[in-house]
Design brief:
Structural class: alpha/beta
Strand order of the largest sheet: 3-6-2-1-9-11-12-10
Largest sheet: 8 strands, mixed
Distance between the termini: 20 Å
Bound molecules: aspartic acid, magnesium ion
Strand content: 25-35%
Order of helices and strands: EHEHHEEEHEEEHEEHHEEHEHEEHEHEEH
Length: about 425
């Protein structure tokens, strides 16, 4: 058995370490795990809203905080939590040591504010574990080859935890947070949402890309890449089982839709009556890319009399700029007009079972039609079908689909 098999990596999010009482509760939870004979490596987020506060602070001295100094500033939030949690454990008589990302050997590239982990040199961590220390690592940060501090992008502590679990050969990465797992849909949108026992990495990535915010998506990507199962569970409610994100889910539930995602940050831009000839799409989308506007869905209709409508979606913050960029191009190529609608939402059904079984699209469209919800645009991937609808009907669409795919009914628990 390798050393990692008796090691667990736990990550505690901002609300879980928000104040001294919460830190003590986390300490108690770690001690219980230690008593079962496992080594524990802990990754912490900054306390409560610390990161937001630090960003606000930076804005008070400059209109454009960013780059290296912002990372210097933000990285302090996680350091505070790691030092305090180590003190809490020592106070309870357990040897513990807090480490910054750099001390823990987390190396990154030098893309400040959204650096990627390039490698983890685990020697220091392993040496501390060999001394029976609980190792408490500041999440969300690393160090470049030039010894500059970096951060991994908002929510990046999840990624630190999964990367560490992979590097240390731990069996799972346990993410403790203020939600108690991954739900079939957002329970605030549909109270009938159910917690999933497990979900496949790919499904989780699709859910996240379509607006479900439970984990940092790169944490899930790393889990997939290194085959590290990720447990998402509540740090507040000890006895409540969480959700495991992993490679395969059991037979039964793979054969159905696993979740419904709602993304309300959507605007659609339609270029009407575009002449249908080669090179037009390149002319339209080149300038958008140059302006760093990320275009999500693109749909071009079949042409009628050599004219075609072209619709694409962007984040709501970008729709005005997108329209401004596209309008002169549209005029130049002889398109009729550009229409933007920024009150849109994307509703998606997600499930690996869709790859092999037909009928999901038909069921989805029928259910929406019966609820008189108009679909403005449809896109699909292997394991997802997305409909663009008016924002005002987004939540209703979620509820209709949740019922249509029987997600409010219990699924047999999977057999590992
Ligand atoms: N503290 C950072 C943030 O708020 C990183 C994290 O919590 O994962 O984004
Ligand atoms: Mg977080």
């Amino acid at each position: 058995m390798n050393a990692g098999a008796r090691l667990c990596v736990q990550k505690y999010g901002g609300t879980s370490v928000a104040d001294p009482d919460r830190l003590r509760a986390v300490g108690a939870r770690i001690v219980r795990r230690l008593e079962s004979g496992t080594g524990v490596v802990v990754v912490v987020s900054a306390m409560g809203k610390t990161t937001d506060d630090l960003i606000k602070l930076a804005h008070q001295v400059t209109a454009r905080p960013g780059g290296r100094e912002l990372d210097m500033l933000l990285s302090t939030g996680e350091m505070v939590s790691s030092a305090l949690l180590a003190m809490v454990l020592r106070e309870r008589g357990h040897p513990a040591i807090g480490l910054t990302g750099a001390q823990a050997g987390v190396r990154t590239d030098s893309t400040f504010n959204r650096a990627r982990i390039t490698e983890i040199d685990t020697r220091r961590i392993e040496a501390e574990l060999a001394q029976d220390q609980v190792v408490i690592i500041a999440g969300f940060q690393g160090i470049t080859s030039e010894a500059d501090v970096t951060t991994l992008g908002r929510g990046g502590s999840d990624t630190t935890a999964v990367a560490l679990a992979a590097a240390l050969g731990a069996k799972t990465a346990e993410i403790y947070t203020d939600v108690d797992g991954v739900y079939t849909t957002d329970p605030r949108v549909d109270p009938k949402a159910r917690k999933l026992h497990d979900i496949a990495y790919e499904e989780m990535l699709e859910m996240a890309a379509q607006g479900a915010r439970v984990l940092h998506p790169r944490a899930v990507e790393l889990g997939l890449l290194y085959d590290v199962p990720i447990l998402v569970a509540s740090s507040f409610r000890d006895t409540v089982p969480g959700t495991i994100i992993r490679r395969q889910v059991a037979m039964e539930p793979t054969n159905r839709v696993r979740g419904i995602a709602l993304d309300r940050d959507v605007a659609a831009v339609t270029v009407r009556a575009v002449p249908d000839r080669p090179g037009i799409a390149a002319q339209l989308f080149g300038p958008l890319a140059d302006a760093a506007i990320s275009v999500d869905t693109i749909v071009q209709n079949a042409s009628v009399e050599r004219l075609t409508d072209l619709t694409f979606s962007v984040a709501q913050d970008d729709w005005r700029r997108a329209q401004e960029i596209v309008e002169p191009v549209a005029r130049a190529i002889g398109a009729a007009e550009v229409i933007a609608d920024h009150h849109m939402a994307k509703v998606s059904i997600v499930g690996t079972g869709m790859q092999t079984a037909p009928g999901y699209a038909a069921t989805m469209f029928r259910a929406l039609a019966e609820a008189s919800i108009n679909i403005q645009l449809i896109t699909t991937s292997d394991i997802r079908i997305t409909a663009l609808v008016a924002d005002a009907s987004g939540e209703a669409a979620v509820r209709v689909l949740h019922a249509a795919f029987q997600l409010d009914e219990p699924v047999e628990a999977s057999r590992d």
